[in-house]
Amino acid sequence: MKKYAxxxxxxxxxxxxxxxxxxxxxxxxxxQCGHHYIGRKEMITxxxxxxxxxxxxxxxxxxxxGVVDWDIGNPFRRQFLINQKNKGxxxxxxxxxxxxxxxxxxxxxxxxEALNEKP
Length: 119
What we know:
Elements: H1 5-19, E1 33-36, H2 43-46, E2 52-55, H3 57-64, H4 75-87, H5 89-95, H6 100-114
Antiparallel strand pairs: 1-2
Helix pairs in contact: 1-6
């Protein structure tokens, strides 16, 4: 994935920018960062905003430290993310006849639309 390091960094930054414009899903305070419900190593959900849980920095730290427990309240959202993870990126690319570059461009487009920004 070294080949895509620059694109990965750009998409990760866009996800965090989006999350910081939301309200925390725990406290409804202004969010400061985005937590990945399905871990970042899963490329298929890494930049899917349905997988991003806006939180404050303190909430994010407490979640990772195991001090607080939290789960996506919407069972359909949770199941969708689990299904995507189980499908995997290779299967997704095959089903959608996409290359990794096209997938990443599609993710970027969706995030920019959510940010109301032009590519």
